[in-house]
């Protein structure tokens, strides 16, 4: 495989395409609402109308506006249809020929779409994720070719470092620094691991990327492997994502067939293989050392660090771990250059971030926005404000480990440092909106129950502390609490934060501490009652 081979595949793919493409969303959310049946009915309607020569129906990844799904888009004109049903197929196809169509239309010019900056989601909703040819036609694998044939491993790491990309799994550790550390570590073998164990309630960013553009993640992993000197990679995906696993495996098989995975990639001396490991749904396996233990076939429990995985990871070998979204940024950085990427976002938080916008909000779905955008812009412009006109009360970022940010602080920029200052975290990208109907103490209790159930039990502070905090919250919500319980709650939260072994226990108190800080009156009301 050479560059001209990629160009030939891309040209043939473009020549194969019909003049009009009907993009039918086939991500998990739309599939759950008869998305596959809609696609089949559209194909039948096109055939019945005799339009096969100029119209093709394409199953694509997530278009983004999940709350209005299933969605269908007519390309290249950009007409959107929302809440599509199988029986709407004939009317949609008739409209292509100028007929009347009563199917509800979406507005592609509304802020939900126009305020986004797609990098990770640049191909989502535009290409068939099950056809490698469509990914190549969109420029896929050219960054890998450039890295292998035109750059040294050190130059690749330098570009990632200068881009300012930070890990999108939650901690925000500088990606280039992590790659550099693994590259310098000594070992006869090194590994690349992609963390797809997305377990936050209300979060589905990584699942969507894997379903919509699996080759983008594989290309990023390949570039990383070349940079650090690895020949084996693993993608750890939670078992609750069967469709993502299916598409990912198909993408791996296609990449092998095209010589883009395996031995002597692009006729070089670089070899790289990727295998999938399916998790059993343990939230704690999102922590990198627990994830590595699970890949090795052991119980998924965190271990003390150091040594860090960069020095001693899988089977004691140097291991690079990044999450799905981090790897999905790599090809674009190599393609456009580090200065381009660094020009997006803020001084300390470069690039974009994908969020799953859910909860009591008008527009739910996936958004990708530049770092530094404010919560107010996300909630009231992209999100369209509260659901059914309700007043938004707070936003929680970062999943069970994140804090609840009140509406009075919605001018806070969305970046790593700013969110930490108001008692929350970026996390992997879950963003849950609450309105005035939400009881914030009940919400804190819900997240603490989640953390209590998901604790691996290895360390005492997390194993016992989450249970005690949950019991206190149950007592308070039942109207049987006292000020002494509030004091003990705060003491226990500090204990967990300072003494737990891993990030689960250390961040579990965040929802409780943030609601105690910003919604004190709700706790006081329950105590007085």
UniProtKB/TrEMBL annotation:
<keyword id="KW-0004">4Fe-4S</keyword>
<dbReference type="InterPro" id="IPR011538">
    <property type="entry name" value="Nuo51_FMN-bd"/>
</dbReference>
<dbReference type="Pfam" id="PF10589">
    <property type="entry name" value="NADH_4Fe-4S"/>
</dbReference>
<keyword id="KW-0411">Iron-sulfur</keyword>
<dbReference type="InterPro" id="IPR037207">
    <property type="entry name" value="Nuop51_4Fe4S-bd_sf"/>
</dbReference>
<dbReference type="InterPro" id="IPR037225">
    <property type="entry name" value="Nuo51_FMN-bd_sf"/>
</dbReference>
<dbReference type="InterPro" id="IPR036249">
    <property type="entry name" value="Thioredoxin-like_sf"/>
</dbReference>
<dbReference type="InterPro" id="IPR001949">
    <property type="entry name" value="NADH-UbQ_OxRdtase_51kDa_CS"/>
</dbReference>
<comment type="similarity">
    <text>Belongs to the complex I 51 kDa subunit family.</text>
</comment>
<dbReference type="InterPro" id="IPR019575">
    <property type="entry name" value="Nuop51_4Fe4S-bd"/>
</dbReference>
<dbReference type="GO" id="GO:0051539">
    <property type="term" value="F:4 iron, 4 sulfur cluster binding"/>
</dbReference>
<dbReference type="GO" id="GO:0008137">
    <property type="term" value="F:NADH dehydrogenase (ubiquinone) activity"/>
</dbReference>
<keyword id="KW-0479">Metal-binding</keyword>
<protein>
    <submittedName>
        <fullName>NADH dehydrogenase (Quinone)</fullName>
    </submittedName>
</protein>
<dbReference type="GO" id="GO:0046872">
    <property type="term" value="F:metal ion binding"/>
</dbReference>
<dbReference type="GO" id="GO:0010181">
    <property type="term" value="F:FMN binding"/>
</dbReference>
<dbReference type="Pfam" id="PF01257">
    <property type="entry name" value="2Fe-2S_thioredx"/>
</dbReference>
<feature type="domain" description="NADH-ubiquinone oxidoreductase 51kDa subunit iron-sulphur binding">
    <location>
        <begin position="441"/>
        <end position="486"/>
    </location>
</feature>
<dbReference type="Pfam" id="PF01512">
    <property type="entry name" value="Complex1_51K"/>
</dbReference>
<keyword id="KW-0408">Iron</keyword>
């Amino acid at each position: 495989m050479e560059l001209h081979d990629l160009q030939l595949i891309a040209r043939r793919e473009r020549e194969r395409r019909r003049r009009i493409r009907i993009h039918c969303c086939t991500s998990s959310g739309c599939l759950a609402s008869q998305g596959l049946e809609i696609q089949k009915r559209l194909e039948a309607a096109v055939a019945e109308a005799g339009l096969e020569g100029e119209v093709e129906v394409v199953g694509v990844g997530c278009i983004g506006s999940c709350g209005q799904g299933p969605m269908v888009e007519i390309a290249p004109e950009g007409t959107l249809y929302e809440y599509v049903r199988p029986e709407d197929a004939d009317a949609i196809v008739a409209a292509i020929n100028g007929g009347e169509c009563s199917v509800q239309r979406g507005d592609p010019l509304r802020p939900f779409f126009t305020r986004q900056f797609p990098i990770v989601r640049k191909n989502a909703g535009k290409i068939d994720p099950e056809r490698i040819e469509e990914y190549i036609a969109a420029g896929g694998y050219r960054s890998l070719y450039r890295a292998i044939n035109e750059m040294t491993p050190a130059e690749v790491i330098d570009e990632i470092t200068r881009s300012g990309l930070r890990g999108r799994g939650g901690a925000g550790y500088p990606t280039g620094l992590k790659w550099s550390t693994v590259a310098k570590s000594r070992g006869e073998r090194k590994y690349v691991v992609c963390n797809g164990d997305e377990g936050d309630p209300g979060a589905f960013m990584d699942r969507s990327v894997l379903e919509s553009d699996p080759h983008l993640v594989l290309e990023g992993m390949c570039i990383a492997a070349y940079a650090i000197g690895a020949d084996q990679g693993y993608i750890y995906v939670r078992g609750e994502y069967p469709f993502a696993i299916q598409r990912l495996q198909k993408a791996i098989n296609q990449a092998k067939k095209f010589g883009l995975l395996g031995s002597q990639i692009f006729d070089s001396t670089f070899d790289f293989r990727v295998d999938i490991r399916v998790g059993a749904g343990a939230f704690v396996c999102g922590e990198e050392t627990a994830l590595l233990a699970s890949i090795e076939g052991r119980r998924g429990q965190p271990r003390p660090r150091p040594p860090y995985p960069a020095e001693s990871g899988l089977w004691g070998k140097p291991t690079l771990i990044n999450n799905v979204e981090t790897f999905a940024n790599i090809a674009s950085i190599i393609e456009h250059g580090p200065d381009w990427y660094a020009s997006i976002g803020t001084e300390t938080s470069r690039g974009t971030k994908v969020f799953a916008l859910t909860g009591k909000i008008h527009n739910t779905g996936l958004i990708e926005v530049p770092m530094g955008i404010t919560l107010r812009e996300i909630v009231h412009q992209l999100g369209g404000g509260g659901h059914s006109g309700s007043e938004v009360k707070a936003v929680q970022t970062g999943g069970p480990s994140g804090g609840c940010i009140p509406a009075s602080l919605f001018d806070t920029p969305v970046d790593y440092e700013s969110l930490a200052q108001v008692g929350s975290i970026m996390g992997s990208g879950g963003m849950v909106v609450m309105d005035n109907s939400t009881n914030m103490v009940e919400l804190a209790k819900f997240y603490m129950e989640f953390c209590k159930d998901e604790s691996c039990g290895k360390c005492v502070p997390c194993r016992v502390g989450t249970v005690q905090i949950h019991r206190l919250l149950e007592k308070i919500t039942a109207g049987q609490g006292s000020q002494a319980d509030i004091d003990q709650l705060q003491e226990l939260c500090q204990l967990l934060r300072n003494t737990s072994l891993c990030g689960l226990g250390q961040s579990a108190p965040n929802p409780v501490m943030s609601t105690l800080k910003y919604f004190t009156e709700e706790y006081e009301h329950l105590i007085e009652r």
